[in-house]
Give the backbone structure.
Amino acid sequence: MNQVILDTLHSRLIARSSLFMLAARKWCPATILVASLACTRGLEWIQDAPNAVAVTTSGSWASMIYLARTDSGMIAIDLGWMGAAAALQRGTRRLDAKPSDVRFAFITHAHRDHIGGWPNVRAARFVLGLPELPYFMGTAQYQGLVPSSAERVSVTERPKSSDIAFIGISQDTSFVLGSDTLWAFVVPGHTPGSTVYLFRGILFGGDAVNYRPFTGFQGARPEMSDDPAQSRASITALWQRVDTLRVKFICSAHAKCARNSDELRRALAK
Ligand SMILES: [Zn+2]
């Protein structure tokens, strides 16, 4: 596993190995469709204000933004969708900070519903799977049925290459943030560069983790994914590389969390 030491206090970033660098509020509208998406689940387990908070955007679609203070500055995991600017304000206020204080934004994947707040934290370094970069920049298009159709209807605002600085990872990488370590594991399938992050006992599974009220937790949704079979294989292989004893909770990118268990991990492979 690669290791990267992140230290913004001294504007220092040390990268080793093959790292490639480039410059809740709950809201549940009363409709049947919305109710079926179930808003959030178990989000209270990962709330730890004033150290860390999880907020959601996009109403019941519940795209999650997780914010945490570390010795190396504030981090975000994913950046939500519609209403991300307000959600970032709300979340950072609970940490006695502001959105511009975010130093590192760890992105599970660049589907539009997880990067909405990028203009509000543009001074941060953006960490994501290297294959995800052209999709984040809008120079490549996802193959998943729903994401590709949505992009034809309305084009998502994407950064110019000069707007933000990226750290693209091509293999599992640990990031040292003072007394915290964040582990990034590559899990291609939902999108080519999908990545999950383990931080303070919480595995942020992106959309490789999916929850629906009647089916419970499962792997990536076929209609949303470039390659759902590859995503399931990636999640199965993940458990060979991650110390599952370190994982207390597993959360989807849509704010659905559960306690880690053998049963849950088996369900995510289905
Ligand atoms: Zn997605």
Q: What stands out?
A: Residues 109, 111, 190, 207, 224 surround zinc ion (CB under 6 Å). The chain has one domain: 2-267. The CA atoms of residues 42 and 257 lie 5 Å apart. The chain has six helices and 17 strands.
